[in-house]
Design brief:
This protein has 82 residues and is mainly alpha-helical. The protein is 77% helix and 0% strand. α1 packs across α2.
Length: 82
């Protein structure tokens, strides 16, 4: 397993991580691994949400281009029928 070293890690931040680790009954290293993993998953979820919003906007604009009135009720019904 790779080893990660962090230079100039702020003491105040280390104290917070140490406190979390103690509360979770983990080592500081294990706690940092959990925190980094969670942060990366949160970032991935954020990117997925951004992509979903882009697809929604593209779909909405396709209705505008065709001259159809954009009615959220119609869109909801179409989604339910899929």
């Amino acid at each position: 397993m790779p080893t990660l070293y962090v230079r100039d890690f702020p003491g105040e931040l280390h104290d917070k991580v140490k406190k979390l680790a103690k509360q979770s009954h983990r080592s500081v290293s294990a706690e940092i691994t959990v925190l980094v993993d969670k942060a990366l998953k949160d970032e991935e979820l954020k990117e997925q949400r951004i992509e979903a919003l882009k697809r929604i906007e593209e779909r909405r604009m396709s209705y505008v281009k065709t001259g159809k009135e954009v009615d959220s009720l119609i869109l909801l019904r179409e989604d339910r029928e899929r």
